[in-house]
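The authors assume throughout that readers already know how a fold can be written as discrete tokens. For illustration, here is how one protein appears when written out as sequence plus structure tokens.
>
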Amino acid sequence: MNPAKLLEKRRDQWSELESLCDAMESRGQTDKAGGAHHQGAEGIARFSTLYRSACADLALADAYQLPPGTVTYLHRLVARSHNQLYRANKFEPNRWTDVLFREAPQQIFADACVRWAAVIFFGLFAMSLFLGRNENMFPDFAQRMVGTQQLEQMEEMYEQPLNGSLDHYVQMSGFYIQHNTGIGLSCFASGILIIPCLFNLAYNAVVLGTVFGYMARPDVTGGDNFYHFVTAHGPFELTAIVLAAGAGLRLGVGLFSTGGLTRIESLRESAMKAVPVMAASAMLFIGAAFTEGFLSPSPAPYVIKAMWAVLSSGLISFYFVVLGFPRDETLLKRIEPAGEFSDAT
């Protein structure tokens, strides 16, 4: 079909988008526009669909050098819509509660990048733990993966029982906070290129899993003290690393799989989707830091640390699985990524 005739048929959608912009500018919400009634997530979803279509129409009009009036109109409409879509809203407690406990967990649950990151990390972590634990079946596996010198340092570090002494354990806590937070940030930063992020995530999963398996051997010095230290904050910290990698991968997918948008627009949209993932990762790192600074190095009985690990794992599962399980199909369509993870790889 002739591009001019095709765009002529889209004028009704342009008018509807313009009406939605009027409604958002005058009332701050998409309630009534274009003769249709849209509320809440339904209105935002419709607005996002029309905005994407207008971006595609603008690209088509530019490519075929259609009349300047049409191109100028579309430029203004897209810019106006963009400002409404990405504007900073005033603080509304009820709105933020809805974002934190409904939209964010459902968006994270529906994000294929987060799922892939979780499968890769925890799958390799569990496999490496098993291989590192079974010395008879897989001799020298731990030494090859981690290094003999580093394993000896781990044994020496945890040779003494935990006693809560700040002289010995504040430095240890600071090292683990810096080390594991650094892993999360490096996974996020490398996610824009996808392959380095996957390698970084896989490498750290193998190293951490091997160390956990090696320290679980009955003949290793300091194994009990090691698990006394890492059990309480482990669920927070490991999950935070996975989420950081998932947020980074979302940026990479947006860069290489645009879904019909320009590369910059696709990257901007992916960045918006990565924000709640990275925010959740940051909150888990904070939880891990407090646990690692106060409970992990304390002489508290192991059963208390294990109970905290179970409780924190339950809270994480409730937030990301129970609250995140999609129940609102309209919301799911709005937060569904433009391109699947496999499309970009």
Notes: DSSP finds 16 helices and two strands in the chain. Residues 3-89 form one domain. The beta strands are 32-33, 36-37. Residues 263-295 form the longest helix (33 residues).
